[in-house]
Amino acid sequence: MKKKKILIVGGVAGGASTAARLRRLDENAEIIMFERGEHISFANCGLPYYIGEVIQQRDALLVQTPEGMSAKFNIDIRVFNEVTKIDREKKVLQVKDLKNNRTYEESYDYVVLSPGASPIMPPIPGIKECKNLFTLRNIPDTDAIKSFVDNKKPKTAAVIGGGFIGVEMAENLVHRGLKVSLVEMADQIMGPIDYEMASILHNHIEDKGVQLILEDGVKSFEKDGKEIILQSGKKINTDLIIFSIGVRPENQLAKDANLELGVGGAIKVNEYLETSDPSIYALGDAIQVKDYINGQDAIIPLAGPANKQGRIVANNLVGKKEKYVGTMGSAVAKVFDMTVASVGNNEKIAKKQNLKYEVIHIHPGSHAGYYPGAFPISMKMLFDPKTDKILGAQAVGYDGVEKRIDVIATAIKAGLKATDLKDLELTYAPPFSSAKDPVNMLGFVAENMKHGLVETFQWHEVKALQDNKAVLVDVREEIERELGFIENTINIPLGQLRNRLSELPKKETIYVYCQVGIRGYLAARILTQAGYKVKNLDGGYKTYGAVFR
Amino acid sequence: MKKKKILIVGGVAGGASTAARLRRLDENAEIIMFERGEHISFANCGLPYYIGEVIQQRDALLVQTPEGMSAKFNIDIRVFNEVTKIDREKKVLQVKDLKNNRTYEESYDYVVLSPGASPIMPPIPGIKECKNLFTLRNIPDTDAIKSFVDNKKPKTAAVIGGGFIGVEMAENLVHRGLKVSLVEMADQIMGPIDYEMASILHNHIEDKGVQLILEDGVKSFEKDGKEIILQSGKKINTDLIIFSIGVRPENQLAKDANLELGVGGAIKVNEYLETSDPSIYALGDAIQVKDYINGQDAIIPLAGPANKQGRIVANNLVGKKEKYVGTMGSAVAKVFDMTVASVGNNEKIAKKQNLKYEVIHIHPGSHAGYYPGAFPISMKMLFDPKTDKILGAQAVGYDGVEKRIDVIATAIKAGLKATDLKDLELTYAPPFSSAKDPVNMLGFVAENMKHGLVETFQWHEVKALQDNKAVLVDVREEIERELGFIENTINIPLGQLRNRLSELPKKETIYVYCQVGIRGYLAARILTQAGYKVKNLDGGYKTYGAVFR
Ligand SMILES: Cc1cc2nc3c(=O)[nH]c(=O)nc-3n(C[C@H](O)[C@H](O)[C@H](O)COP(=O)(O)OP(=O)(O)OC[C@H]3O[C@@H](n4cnc5c(N)ncnc54)[C@H](O)[C@@H]3O)c2cc1C
Ligand SMILES: Cc1cc2nc3c(=O)[nH]c(=O)nc-3n(C[C@H](O)[C@H](O)[C@H](O)COP(=O)(O)OP(=O)(O)OC[C@H]3O[C@@H](n4cnc5c(N)ncnc54)[C@H](O)[C@@H]3O)c2cc1C
Ligand SMILES: CC(C)(COP(=O)(O)OP(=O)(O)OC[C@H]1O[C@@H](n2cnc3c(N)ncnc32)[C@H](O)[C@@H]1OP(=O)(O)O)[C@@H](O)C(=O)NCCC(=O)NCCS
Ligand SMILES: CC(C)(COP(=O)(O)OP(=O)(O)OC[C@H]1O[C@@H](n2cnc3c(N)ncnc32)[C@H](O)[C@@H]1OP(=O)(O)O)[C@@H](O)C(=O)NCCC(=O)NCCS
Fold it and tell me: Which chain A positions have a beta carbon within 8 Å of B332's beta carbon?
């Protein structure tokens, strides 16, 4: 049997995973892994935390060294070697040895492209002149930022872009003692979740001292980056700029080789992760995937998918055919003391895709309320009212947040319906959960909506109801209103409702609300059975108040 | 429409849940809830932590008071009222008002039995004379134990029984400054997990100062409980005894009413949770359920199932027919600094039920190793080698333990196979997990076994191999052996293996091991492809060493 010769472009998440699995499957294959940088197999996701000195040893970021990985896996690892061209006719790669400044060719049976994605850098006036502007992708970027912070001792920083990396950088720079401004073009940070959920995070990061500037972008950089002029005209003086408005697939090699590209220039692959040339596989941040929920083409650059795709590519290379069926975008981030996690489609996507959906907001405790340290988790789930399919879920809280999203991600993967969540038998003891886990609660509420036990209205509908002088009833205790309430609402505590029905008009719809939605639901049940038409504020005052605090 | 009259026996997990849901579904039903004790709806599961003063407010244990619940739910709640007889002919319950010492009858359309389970108290010599012996089920028990600890200031305690409650009590008494002995008849504590997994806990609780006495039981209590004589002849002097060797279903009412009983005297119900009398439902700790994994009749007394069954009973009472399909026994407990969680069948059950199974042990990190605070989670999974069905999983560790079991519980519920676990898209950021989550790892390993990429041997097979002078190869680095190794093994570090193949005999099976199983797997792949017959120690030295430290 002829030895297969496989060339891998990119030596980190996708590339190194492919190489490792491939060697396990085929001891005889010739495997060469090209990496243009100095490091392979490093912890991209840990970089912000090393800058923040949460991770203290730089070495900890190097999951594998070239020497270590070569010894373990017998792989020819070539760092400082950049692949500059794919010659598909000749089946060779053109490689530039950056250390020795020479170019050479390497023939292949198969190529695996895992070149990742690079930070987007639009031609904003003054951006090139900035002496204090950084993007963050790899170890050299990290070293540059860290040494700037260590040596130049900046007092202020502006982070441009409120995605995962921007928010993680804002947090870590605050850890380092900087006064941080976070500038975001959209009306919210953390795009994968929706506005009212992000509002909880807005409040939290402002509490932590971050100056949050939403719905504004950079117009120009002045004074070598010491001053930022925003679209609004606002000026920010800053010692340090982190520019992180997103990434774009590294598609140059693929493009030059006339491989098919898809949305946003991402490399097109079939379900076996083959590009339009069957000798060339591609994976990771550079490729186009199927959105697992809505089936559309998408770019979802995450480490979990990249690692798993690497294993699949290796399997396919040795003929153990395996499909990659899509990405659902399960993601989590630490945001100071809070955690945010999500899976699947949010309401913005659902709207854009014209999906039919119902929304649920709940705020259950992370674990039993009577055991110390329980905090509410704010959760949102979208599901298809007809098929009951779970479209996505989001959660924000202090503890146990990503656990619930992982459970829902598993449910989605397995094709469980929204109402099936009520039947999940999840582990319970007081330090960990409640006898009815938050995920069960989502299932209960979904079932109640499906069965018509309750109708809900949303936080963003309140304004119009107030304007129309609708009957809005607060069923919380009077004392709870001291911490905030919705204007123009009557207060009838739940315990008194059965005896005070006569105060409510039978002809109008009654809009009830409570703190989190449970008592509102109980009130809705009482009123409905007493012949009223009634709607309950989904997520209660807590969801409403997160936006309008 | 005639009002339905529903009498509920037992006012805590199952009973109160039934009542609450029932009221939401039917505003007109007449609902009477009988509870022989003073409290309804209390936090059974929190009781040990109140004794340990982790939960500081006694009030926190009372999830609902009779007054509060009456007001919210318009339910006739009768505490200190014990139901003493079911007259099925007349359709009345006989009730004893314990406060006023009078007996009365209450008629019903339906009865719901949720009487729970009571601590087993065998007639051990001297048990009745003990002045310091307690069982723990309810608030009065809790008050008695706590006041004994507060006032009598015992210095030593003996906990008899190493199940959930026994272990939680041991921990909480250590918190209170007592020197605790834990006596268990079996060779391990925490029955739901297997011996080698429990060994990790044995080591941990001994490190925490608990004197662990396994494979020994109480022969007699002497000196009013100041002295315990064990079967082995060993004597324990103790100031306080917690007796918690298990619970048995409270079946007296059902038995007297000639309702069908099942295993261990548990009340038999059909899938709608109806007893053999269709006017009488039963749920919670008192009933027999189907083991979700193996389909056998079982008693699985847990709060999650009790609460969910309550909701199902209420649904069925109003004609929203719903089935209860079985219990998989998802459970978790805090054991000092560690967490133990499990779902489904363990190896002991699998053996007893003659199930065909394969075993996997892994020890992945709770989150990315380069981010502070990561600890290994020791996991065990059983699956059917033929159908690939997941039979059960167990995990012990410091963090992220129950998250992984919840994900697997969800997978089991949805009918995912062991190998499907590799495709789960779980959330990842360094503080929370790894790009390949521990649950994915179980899927990878399962797939490798199924595809014959690797064969494994188990910790308990090592002895026989040593006796038979099998070739045992330690592929760890030399320095790792300083912290322990398996006797009579040769050491060839993985990095050297390819060059030292000639040292190994081709005719014999090579048994390799490393620290957790990964390098052993890599070694196995190298050796297999070099023409050797090879087996890898499942779970590596870490699983082996937990037993033989
Ligand atoms: C700061 C930061 C934090 C992150 N945090 C998270 C997180 O918490 N969770 C999460 O899921 N994801 C996170 N990610 C994303 C995650 O790191 C990526 O999804 C993942 O690394 C993608 O893998 P990849 O193999 O496609 O690309 P990469 O891991 O980026 O590897 C691509 C490599 O290819 C090399 N390369 C490119 N072109 C060539 C060429 N022509 N020749 C030779 N070499 C080449 C590059 O130098 C690069 O090293 C984070 C990313 C960053 C930058
Ligand atoms: C200390 C302790 C810790 C626990 N920890 C956990 C845990 O961490 N996780 C977990 O899942 N489970 C735990 N459990 C188990 C959990 O509490 C039970 O599974 C659950 O309470 C069962 O609900 P039930 O309604 O069947 O019984 P119970 O909640 O026990 O309620 C039964 C009630 O019925 C009353 N009653 C009985 N007979 C009559 C009668 N004839 N007339 C009137 N009233 C009557 C009893 O007084 C009792 O109050 C724990 C239990 C204990 C005791
Ligand atoms: C480390 C890296 C090279 C991948 O190496 P890898 O060997 O595939 O991955 P791991 O070390 O996690 O080991 C996984 C393998 O061990 C096996 N395994 C895990 N635990 C095992 C055990 N206890 N017993 C036997 N096998 C085990 C798995 O089955 C898997 O093998 P398989 O793919 O052949 O089935 C690659 O992931 C990498 O470069 N990571 C860093 C970069 C990165 O991912 N960045 C983004 C996140 S920060
Ligand atoms: C508290 C107790 C009486 C049950 O009351 P309950 O009202 O059924 O339960 P909860 O308060 O958790 O509320 C759940 C209900 O609120 C609904 N709900 C939850 N969050 C909601 C929200 N944000 N909006 C609308 N509805 C919501 C759920 O759908 C569910 O209603 P449903 O069953 O009609 O679908 C009972 O569980 C109990 O006695 N517990 C203590 C004893 C015990 O369980 N011991 C063992 C564990 S320690």
Answer: 427-429, 432-433
DSSP H or E stretch at residue A139? helix A139-147
Identity of the residue numbered A548: F
Considering only alpha carbons, which residue of chain B is nearest residue A14?
Answer: B435
Residue B6 Cα distances to A290, B114, B186, B257, angstroms: 52, 13, 43, 18
Of A484, A458, A441, A454, the closest CA to residue A543 belongs to A458
CA B33 to CA B17: how far, in whole Å? Answer: 11
The token pair that represents B117 in the structure block = 């389970």
Ligand in nearest proximity to the CA of A37: 1
What pLDDT is stored for residue A1 in this prediction?
A: 61
- Do residues B345 and B293 make contact, with C-beta atoms less than 8 angstroms apart? yes
A514 is catalytic: no
Q: E-strand spans in A56-187?
A: 76-79, 81-87, 92-97, 102-107, 110-113, 117-119, 133-134, 156-160, 179-183
Q: How many CB atoms lie within 10 A of CB A318?
A: 15
Query: Residues B26-56, buried b or exposed e (16+ Cβ, 10 A)?
Result: beebebbbbbbbebbbbbbbbbbbbbbebbe
B56 phi, psi to nearest 5 deg: -95, -25
pLDDT for B422-472, tens place per residue?
999 999 999 999 999 999 999 999 999 999 999 999 999 999 999 999 999
ipTM summary value:
0.98
CA angle A74, A287, A332 (to 5 degrees): 90
Minimal Cα–Cα distance from A125 to chain B, Å?
34
User: What's the CA gap between A17 and A21, in Å, rounded?
Assistant: 6
Ligand 2 nearest-atom number relative to CA B10: 34
A286-A290-A295 Cα angle (round to 5): 155
d(CA B513, CA B35): 57
Task: Find the A164 Cα to ligand 1 centroid distance in Å.
Answer: 14
Average pLDDT over chain B, rounded to whole? 97
Dist. CA B521–CA B59, nearest whole Å: 54
Query: pLDDT digits over B339-396, tens only?
Result: 999 999 999 999 999 999 999 999 999 999 999 999 999 999 999 999 999 999 999 9
Which string of DSSP letters, residue by residue, matches B459-524?
GGGHHHHHHTT-EEEE-S-GGGGGG---SS-EE--HHHHTT-GGGS-SSSPEEEE-SSSHHHHHHH
Pairing of strands A76-79, A30-35: parallel
**Residue A135 to residue A132: CA distance in whole angstroms:** 10
Of the listed ligands, the closest to the CA of A313 is: 3
- Residue A328 to chain B, least CA–CA distance (Å): 7
Phi, psi at A534, each rounded to 5°: -145, 145
Q: Ligand 1: does its nearest atom lie under 6 Å from the Cβ of B429?
A: yes
Q: Could you identify the residue written with the tokens 């010739």? A: A30
Q: Comparing C-alpha atoms, which of B432, B212, B435 is closest to residue A405? A: B432
- Give B365's strand partners: B376
Residues in chain A: 549
Q: Do A414 and B410 touch (CB under 8 A)?
A: yes
**What distances in angstroms separate CA B329 from CA A366, B347, B417, one per listed residue?**
21, 14, 18
What 3 state SS string does B14-77 have?
HHHHHHHHHHHHCCCCEEEEEECCCCCCECHHHHHHHHCCCCCCHHHHECCCHHHHHHHHCCEE
Quote the tokens at residue B239: 């100031």
